[in-house]
Amino acid sequence: MSRIKIIPLQFAGVEVLEQMLPLISARFKIETLMTTCRLDLTPFFDPVRSQYNANDIIQKLVPLADEGDKIVGVTDLDLFIPVLSYIFGQAYLGGSVALVSGHRLVNARYGLADDPKLFSERLLKCIIHELGHAFGLKHCLLPGCVMDSTTYVEEMDQKSDQFCRNCKIQLK
Amino acid sequence: MDNNLSILIVDDELSVRDSLSNWFIEDGYTVDTAEDAKVALKKIEAFNFHIILVDIKLPGMDGLELNRRIKSINDEAVVIIMTAFASVDSAVQALKDGAYDYVCKPFDPDAITHIIRNASKTIHLSKENITLQDRIKSLVNVEDIIGESEGILNVLEQVRVVAETDSTVIINGDSGTGKELIAKAIHMNSSRRFFPMVTVHCGAIAENLMESELFGHERGAFTGAQYARKGKFEMADGATLFLDEISTISMKMQIELLRVLETKTFTRVGGNREFKSDFRVICATNRDLQAMVNAGEFREDLFYRLNVFSITIPPLRERTEDIKPLTEHFVKFYAEQMNKETKHIGRRAAKALKNYDFPGNVRELENLIERAIVIGTGDTVQLKDLPLDHVAAKPTWESIQEMEHHHIQGILEKYDWNISRSAKALGVDRVTLYSKIKKYKIEKSK
């Protein structure tokens, strides 16, 4: 039986993730639960960039996924992949593992008043987006679809946490 | 997003190759990788990649040399040079050697997304253009049809399609758009080109003379008809009959015309002899014939007889990109005609022309330029030579994004680049304003 497992990795808002579980489950129509794992992320820190290497973390998470499961690691740490200056999340198309960072989703980092609700909405969109990739979906050009590729939080705020009709069909 | 384009990533670092592949695969591109120039060249020789990302620092042959080699194998490939160690020299060299862009690692995700999307757009436009140009190149005698806009290229494509047939054509277009030029182009590219194109300016012929004009007349058919006269139908035997301003012909003439179009036979006025003529009809109108049919002003049966193939020429205001080449064409033409030194268009004059609506279309532009050449002095057409001072300052923004860009820039300058006050005035938060400034690359003017 396939499941989606959400794993907090140095992530402070576990209660936020708990509230998201039924929403994620509803989107993918798969049982979604939260699990823990003792993974020390220190070795993945790049002192030159002061960021954590997402590709390497993902490799460590792959063995944790049982057959058919999808794992989403969620962290507060700032992530990068070698060729990009930052990422909100990372997943391999049709792979078993996704990784999402809440670091750049926090309003306060942009000099604005903290907005936990907005943070939670952004995080949910990121998780669903990366899981979408893990389920084989590519980026979608339809504005508003959660699979729309976004590289700024403001762009992310423009899209919904829903799949468009086309992506829904592909997901099935 | 674009499943038809392929990308090759050439980088000696596995992590870079993997990261980029994954990034582009998520966007729907077909992706391949190579760890050095040798492997890359082998793959490029075997497969036509659309976009090739090349790291400068490669073992053996470096990325700049690889770029040159790629261009000699596949000149159409879009090469994007990547480097972790940017230098002006290498960037200049790469661009001189035909690279499409030069980016520094690590990339901003938004920047690389935009570069690749722009490259994709360029590839698509170039493909479309080549297809259209190739097909249009086969057209002859279309040099007078000046323009590079999609609108005019589409018209030329329709010309190409219909010229090969013998179908009746209606050319729609506002006054001054060049309907007769299009008719000529159709004629000159048809099998009838060895015969003349016989033109009838229907609006310019008095009703009582129209019959004689089209059918001809026999000697003595009416007072003053000393000699027999060939009509246009007869003259157009084997050729093309161009009926300009078809909407102006009378209801009586419409019945006659319909009969001739159906039988291709007629008799001269005042005669009994039946003539047969093999002509192709092209007509032009600046009125909506369908609306005239609905209003009972034009015969429905004639309309359907004529409306086999319809070409609509867009007005000049809908293809503003054609204003520049048309202007240059007319400057050259009239300067030669009038033996003047005028060669250029001044910046402000060009801007005013671009901003003007041209209700009289190409004909009006031609007249403006002719007048400017007459009254102008020196080698450049100046704004003062054109009666367009009133339109010079009109903004040229077309897209909402352009408008947003300029509006934000204006507000920033108004508030002396005080971000908080500007953001407040714009009704957005500071982060949004910062992201817009970055997006539109707005800079403080010095």
Write structural notes for this entry:
The complex is a heterodimer of chains A (172) and B (446). In chain A, helix 1 (14-28) packs across helix 3. In chain A, the strands form 2 sheets. Chain A has a 5-stranded mixed beta sheet with strand order 2-1-5-9-8, with helices on both faces. Chain A has one domain: 3-Layer(aba) Sandwich (Collagenase (Catalytic Domain)). In chain A, 32% of the residues lie in helices and 22% in strands. Chain A has 172 residues and is an alpha/beta fold. With 446 residues, chain B is of the alpha/beta class. Chain B has 4 domains: 6-129, Response regulator (Rossmann fold); 150-313, P-loop containing nucleotide triphosphate hydrolases (Rossmann fold, 3-Layer(aba) Sandwich); 317-391, Helicase, Ruva Protein, domain 3, CATH 1.10.8.60; 400-439, Arc Repressor Mutant, subunit A. Chain B has 18 helices and 16 strands. Chain B has helices at 14-26, 37-46, 63-73, 88-96, 109-137, 150-163, 179-188, 207-215, 232-235, 251-263, 289-294, 300-306, 323-337, 347-355, 361-375, 400-414, 419-426, 430-439, and strands at 6-10, 30-34, 51-55, 78-83, 101-104, 169-173, 197-201, 216-217, 229-230, 240-244, 265-267, 274-276, 280-285, 309-313, 344-345, 380-381. In chain B, the strands form 5 sheets. In chain B, strands 2-1-3-4-5 form a 5-stranded parallel beta sheet, sandwiched between helices. A 5-stranded parallel beta sheet of chain B has the order 7-10-13-6-14. In chain B, strand 3 (51-55), helix 3 and strand 4 form a beta-alpha-beta unit. In chain B, helix 13 crosses helix 15, helix 16 (400-414) packs across helix 17 (419-426) and helix 17 crosses helix 18. The two termini of chain B are 40 Å apart. The model of chain B has no long low-confidence stretch (mean pLDDT 86). The chains are: A alpha/beta (172), B alpha/beta (446).
